[in-house]
Structure formats: structure tokens, C-alpha cells
Amino acid sequence: MENVEIIIDGVRKVVPKRITILKVAQELKIEIPTLCYHPAIEPYGACRLCTVEIEKNNRKMFVTSCNYPIENEIKIETNNENVIKIRKLILELLIAKVGYKGKVKEIAEKYNVEPRFGVGDDDCILCGLCVNVCKEIIGVNAISFSSRGINRDVSPPFGKEAVDCIGCGACAFLCPIGTIKIEDLNEKRIITKINANLELEKCKICGKYFVPKKFIEYIKNKIGNVELDVFLICDECKGENYIKRLASFSLTGGKNE
Amino acid sequence: MKKINDIEELKKLREKLIKGKNKEGIVISVCMETGCIASGSYEIYKELLKEVKRLKDKKVKVLKTGCHGFSEVDPAIVIYPEKIFYIKVKVDDIDEIIEKTIQKREIIERLTYKDETTGEIIPYLDQIPFYKKQKKLVLSLNGLIDPEDINDYILYGGYSALSKVLFEMEPEEIIEEIKKSGLRGRGGGGFPTGKKWEYCRKAEGEPKYVICNADEGDPGAFMDRSVIEGNPHSVIEGMIIGAYAIGANDGFVYIRHEYPLALKRLSFAIQQAREYGFLGEDILGSGFSFDIDIVRGGGAFVCGESTALMASIEGKVGEPRAKYIHTVEKGLYEKPTCLNNVETWANVPFIINNGWEKFAEIGTDTSKGTKIFSLVGKVKNTGLVEVPMGITLKEIIFDIGGGIKGNKKFKGVQTGGPSGGVIPEKYLDLPVDFDKLNEVGSMMGSGGMIVMDEDTCMVDVARYFLNFLKEESCGKCVPCREGINQMLSILNRITEGKGKIEDIEILKEISDFMQKASLCALGKTAPNPVLTTIEYFYDEYVAHIEKKKCYSGVCKDLIEYFIDPEKCTGCQLCAKNCPVSAIEGERKKVHKIDIEKCIKCGICFNVCKFNAVERK
Fold it and tell me: Could you give phi then psi for residue A101, rounded to 5 degrees?
């Protein structure tokens, strides 16, 4: 792979071509805040919090480090005064929208943001992690962005029930402000914000409801010839089972390879 | 229609068409563009057809054409060969036109254009001031050809540029020609077209695509619509030439669904071009194949942004993505893509036919050729104008546009739509080109030009554009979505008289931030209306904030109407017209406005014959 030499925060560094600035920074333990970035998902570039200033061909400009591929010799400043000013204003605007919640609160405190535009109480910063994980990693597309401009929101098709949702919970796991939550109540799983309502299946061993039926169906269709029983045992029982089996192996002299 | 297999057949067809044209005597052309149809031109066209048929004179022909541009006087007709120009024609006038003008060659004075200041009667199109300073390259055939008849286009040399490039030029030569011409993208960015083509040709990856951006969405802009409605083949021919130069075999026209007539004419033109063999396999026997698909957009303003447009063609949500890797390398379906605007494509046949020198001799050092503007707002002669680059704003607004309506004072001109800025009086002598407009904080944009008079409140103008963008931003990135929202709240407060003087600095701060941190050009340019109005009309902001006054009388919370007892005659006209019965007073006695009830609609102000109603 071709290499290219860059200067990042005053340090000279040779990096592979087309690597993103954020990846280089992470390797160098330079902290750049992000809200819409996750290493498993294509960089989306929506929150702009990872903005850095670069100098290329004697021209200075601001780019988002998560998706800027380094092509030629550039000088990068990840934390200068201009960059901090931009990050502070982004956080200020997000606080005006959703208030002090989750990761927004955490980063805003680090940057000492003083909110001039008030403290809002919307439930979503529109980072897109939920939509993108559902599309790219799960492959279900149960939710999407709806409307545009100030009316943009995350929603299931036509704002109704998320009929395609398999209840995997990846969206809830990634939501940086904790808006999407999984609530299991006996045989039902409800996922807040995205309006999903799913039937749960019982654990074959302990009989506790633990996994959405649709999720099992989806896995079955994806993988094909796999004994479904494997998926019908809850994590706790799986763990217990596994230890029992391990124990039985050691009793037989550890013949298992 | 029979397929044209080679250049010879095309030449023969053209010769035949020219012979037929020479036999024609009188042609009555009726503009049938969306705006003209709305003002009644279709009824006139139908009536003319009926009446001319009755004449049984084969030398008289009625032609439906694209827009002549002078929207203010619609519906208008032009009678060739003399180019007699009749304005605001009604169906009832047609008998007289046939009898006097068509049969006796007399001019009907009451239907001609009259110069407002001198009162002079100007019967011929070319002598009308509106047309005098214009230079028509792209719109040269509007008014001469039937946009639904490919033969009309061929008659005037259509598709000759295509045959020239296919048989006499190498792709690199075409690109060189376009580069030398100095043509820059007419969609707003002003990127050199030849360079774009070159990058796309050199980019690795197959297949390559060409796209025509017909997603015109600026408030008050209708240039691209008029080009497609008037001469769709010029766009198609430009695209085929571009595709050949770049090495693409597939093209798309992305056009908004709100343009039904343009859509219809374009579909029709593509169909005809296919039947003649200008589109499809082995074009004119050259071995080169290319075809065009039409993709209809849902009317989202942001889909005019190239990456959002491409996402939309792919069937995805129309939102922009980062352009750190340019679309000429990775565009539609991640393949090298060359996207140009309607007007850019339509310029291509002219350059190929006439040579780059002919094109480059028009314009300024950095901006060549002509530019089409839709001249609207408080100007006397509204319409579609095509002018050489470098013409001054003053010439466009006062010579072509005839100055400000109702003898009001000029205040500013907004160019470039929501991404542009308001240019004040002191820059009226500014030569219009890409760079000069940028220097004063505005931009060329796609060519909207909104003229504003003294009754326009500049704070309200900034508020208007942000209000438009609040809903038309895609909403993906924080600076654009939330920045616009916050700026709009501040501007709303100012227009309500609740602003603080610090607000002006905050507006500037958010503007600067949006220019630096937004994802796409929509967000980066959205602050322009705010920044230019603050810079050039600072006093108005201060008046709204400190004096709580809107001197233009626009911001309702900051104005009051009252009746001057000295002037009021007690005629009761205002009281009768008040929609909320806020005016009381007996006949022949002084009237009074109840401030509590008044909704500040201004009707009393407008109806009073004695100027007794005052606004403060």
C-alpha cells in the first residue's frame, strides 16, 4: 500500500494512503470527540463534532476527520482554537435541541459549554447510528430518517409500527443519548422511540421469555441449516450449560481437543 | 419517423426542411411555456389555429414556441418575418389581428408595446428595450421553433454539433475546445466545465455516467424550466456530446415533478431523438452508443446538490454526502460521473458549432459567454433574460428591466436564491460574473434575480430565506439543521421587536460556523442572506432592535396604523374595507382605528383616497 507523510498536531507521521484522519488520531491516542461515528459503521459525517482543521496546498480548511481520506501531504490540527470553537457551538446547538443527555452531556462538560440558546428536551440528536446499524450491520432497514430540515426524525415506515424490526436491539445499544430503550415485559418486547412491539420466545431450559421470535426467524433464514435449539437457550442457561460441559470434559481427562 | 443512419442523411433532411421553410410566408408564434399558458396563451393558440385554418392560406402558419422571455406582457405573440410583437393579447383581439395584420400587413397600435417614459410605440420585438441589451445564445431558438418538433431544431442546425464531434473530433479535442471556451458550470458553483469533463474522462472505473441537473428549486427561478420547455434538444445534444467526450453510454436527467410541461416536452424530445437515431445504439453510424433516462424528483430543494441528487437517482434518501472524493471519480453508483446543469449542457452545441473563440469573446476575463437570469420582484419588466457576462446590475435592472415598479426607490437585488445575498445600491455598477458577485458576498447561483424596492424590509428578507431553508435543508448535519433553526429564532425575535443588540454578533458567529462546518454547499451558503443584509443594511437591524421600528412597514409587530384627523373626511371607505371592523366613525366625521382590534393588514392604508391613514 502507498504511504503518505503528514503532520498531525505537530508530529510527523507516515500513514497509509486513504486512511481517515480519525483512525490516525486514534492510533496516536489523540482524542477527537464523536457522536455519529462507530468503527463498525461507514462514517456518516452528520454530527460534525470530529471536525479538524487541515492545511492542503497552502489552503486551510475544516474537514470531518471520521470520513476524510488522507490523499496527500497535509498538515492537521485536531484541537486548535478554531476547532474547539466549532465543537462548542455544535454542542451548544445540540443542548438547545435535546438538553443534557448521555454522551452530549459528557462531552459538553468536557468542553465547558455554556448554553446561550436554552436547554431543549427533544429525544433525538439525529446522529443516525440506529438507522445505519439497522441498515449496514443487521440488514433489516426497519427504521429510517423521515421528513427533512427541522422536521427530520427517526421513524419506522410512515410513522407506524416498526413492522420489519426483529428486535435485535442494536439501535438501543448504540443510541448515544439513551433514547432508544428495550423494555421486556413477560412475552412482549417493546423498543421505545422506534415503536417496535415484538413477541418473545421462552428459554428451552429455564422457561424465561428472552428472545424475539422474529429475531430467531431472521437468523434461521440468514444462516440456514443450523439447529435452532442453540438459539433458544438464554444467555444465563447457555453459560451454565457450557460450564457443565466443560466440567464434564475435565472429568473425562480432557480428551476433547 | 425514419432513422437517420449517417451524416449525409442528416444533411439531406436539413436541406429539405430549409426548402420547406423558405416557402413559408407569415408565421405567428405563440409562447407556450408554463407562465404564458397560465396567462392564457393556450386559448389564443387554439383560436389562432382555427382562424388561420379558415383563411385557407398555406403561407400563414401558427407556431407554438418556448418563452420569448418578457413575462410581464404575457400572453404575447410574435408575427414573423417582421417580428411584430403584440402584448397582452386576448382571444377577442384575434379577428382583428387576422384581418389587419395578417391580411393587410397593418400594425394594430393598441396591441403594441409602448415605452412608459416616452410614450413611443414600439411594434417590433428587436427594438423593445427589454430585448436590446440581451444576447441570446442558449435561448436563441426560443420563439423560433416548436419544442415538440425535432425537425424545427434540425432546420436551424440542430444536431450538427453532434455529427461534427462524432466524425471530426477526438474526445480529447472536444474537452480542449470546452476548456478553451472558458465555459463554467451554470448551476451555481461555476466550476470550469472542460476541466470537470477531463477529470471524469481520466477517472478510473466503468461505466461512466453523465447527469443533467434540472432540479431548479430557488424561489423565483425558472431559467432551466424555460430552456427545457423552449428547446429541449439543445440540452439533449449537449449531453450526447459530453457523454462522447467523457466516454459514457448512460445519461440521466433529474427533473422535478413540479415541472410537468418541461417533463412532457423532454420525454417527447428524447423519444424523437431516439427515433431519429441521435440516441441509442450506433449513433449516426459512428459506433458510439448513448441513451438518456429521465428521473423525476419529488421537489426537495436539497436534491439540487449533486451528491443528494445522485442518492435520489439511486433510490435512496436525497441527502448529501462528503465530497472529499469528488463525484467525477465516485459519483452515481460509486462510478465516475459528470453532472452539469441544464444551461451548461445547452451551451455545448453552440461552442462546438461556432468554435471556442466565438464563445470566449463574450464575457469577462474569468466568466465567458452569457447567463440566463429570471428577473423578478419589484421590477417593471419581469421575465427571462439572457445577457452577456460582465453586464452591470444596473443595465439588467434599469435598461432591460425598466427600473422599479410604481416609481419606488431601488433598495437591493438578491441574486443566487437562498444561497445568495442581497446586493445594495452602491454596487449597481458591478459587472455580473461569477467572481464579482462572490466578492460582494452574494453568488451567481443558478440565476435567480429578485429586485427589491424601498418597501422591502431586509431583516424580513433574511428571515424569509432562512424560513425556506429551515424546511428545505436535508437535516443531516448539525450546523445546517440547528444553525438555521437558531438563526431563524433570533430573526423572528428581531422582527417582533424582541431582539437584543448582541443578537447581531450571534448571527454572525453562527453564520461563520455554518460556513466552516456544514456538510454541503446548502449549509455553507445558507448564511449569505443574513450576512449580506447585516453588512449592507445594518441600520435596519439596529432600528428593529433599538427603536422597535420597521421603516419599510413590513414587520407587523413594529408598525401601527392611525388616522390623521386633519385629513380624514369621514367617507367610511376604510371602515367598510376593514376585515376585523377595527375602524369606527360616523359618516362625515373623523374615524378612529381601534389598536386592540387592528391586525395591521394595511387595507385601510391602501384604500384611503385622502392619504389620511398613516403608518408609523
Answer: -135, 140
